[in-house]
Specification:
alpha/beta, 7-stranded mixed β-sheet, 4-stranded parallel β-sheet, elongated
Length: 324
């Protein structure tokens, strides 16, 4: 039987992602439309344990949809990974009259949400991560902005790389996932792309291709390296020593997390946030909002966490045909 919910909380957890503010705005305004009260929980699960909880109204989320980052701030919390921390979190929710929580984050955040749900706090997850590595969803909040930010930066590096006739290794974020690297490989016309899911560590192959490209008259070489492989600076030194071609490493880093969210991130985040609030209003719990096969849906958290995700093989094969 659906549990009646009167007050909900919303928090952002783990790494920040452009579009999180759009999701927060949608959660708050949808919940108010459904007659619920809303409380913002600052700094994720860490803020919950510290009782950093504030009332939120419609004006609390005015003029935030265009802003990167998260107005609720975010943090990682080792304490909440323990049963004692989870019990404390559920008790604090009850103390503040919070019947349900929307958790915006990645798989680690969803595991915490599942623990709260098991302790009687209705909980809904919304996938927010630039890495696109939440297996249950084809889209995660922030990916589109991050990949566009990286694309623009790589275009700029290509300009100077061409001017100096050098090789550039450009490292993009993504943790252990290669989705940002794959998309930038397509979008930036890279000569090589290194994905954690596929790269076998054969640097000699890269070196041979760079030499062959130079013989064919190519004046520059762009290698996009995923964060999950890393070591871009040392790789650049080895390639330069082997080829005699000046090679530079550029690590784009956390600039990919910031900036104005794209239209796609604003719209998808708004829809997902609204659906999460509607699920709580209907008394649902232990669910994740997902975008799969062109549709928005919700799945059981444990089912979502058990799913696996890999680089689409057809996309990888097409990208290999295009690099030259």
């Amino acid at each position: 039987m659906a549990k009646a919910v009167k007050t909900i909380g919303v928090l952002t957890s783990g790494g920040d992602a452009p579009g999180m503010n759009a999701a927060i705005r949608a959660v708050v305004r949808t919940a108010i439309h459904e007659g619920l009260k809303v409380k913002g929980i600052m700094r994720g699960y860490a803020g919950l344990l510290q009782e950093e909880i504030v009332d939120m109204g419609s004006t609390s989320v005015s003029d935030i949809i265009h802003r990167g980052g998260t107005i609720l701030y975010t943090a990682r919390c080792m304490e909440f990974m323990t049963p004692e921390g989870q019990e404390q979190g559920a008790e604090i929710c009850r103390k503040h009259g919070i019947d349900g929580i929307v958790v915006i984050g990645g798989d680690g955040s969803f595991r915490g949400a599942g623990k709260l749900a098991a302790l009687g706090i209705n909980t809904i997850g919304v996938p927010g991560t630039i890495d696109l590595d939440v297996a249950c969803s084809d889209y995660t909040i922030g990916f589109d902005t991050a990949v566009n930010t990286a694309m623009v930066a790589i275009d700029k590096v290509r300009d100077t790389s061409t001017s100096h006739e050098r090789c550039s290794i450009i490292e993009v974020m993504g943790r252990k996932a290669g989705y940002i690297a794959l998309w930038c490989g397509f979008a930036n016309g890279a000569e090589d792309i290194l994905l954690p899911e596929r790269y076998d560590g054969d640097e000699q192959m890269l070196i041979n291709r760079i030499i062959d490209n130079r013989k064919r008259g190519k004046k520059h070489n762009i290698i996009i390296n995923a964060e999950g492989i890393g070591h871009s600076a040392s790789m650049a030194r080895r390639i330069e020593a082997a080829t005699g071609i000046e090679t530079r490493a550029t690590i784009l880093g956390h600039m990919q997390r910031g900036g104005t969210p794209t239209c796609k991130d604003r719209v998808y985040a708004s829809i997902m946030g609204s659906k999460a609030a509607l699920l709580l209003a209907a008394g649902k719990s232990n669910r994740v909002v997902a975008y799969r096969h062109g549709e928005y849906m919700d799945l059981d958290i444990q089912e979502a966490l058990s799913m696996k995700k890999d680089i689409p093989e057809d996309q990888y094969e097409i990208e290999k045909m295009l690099v030259r």
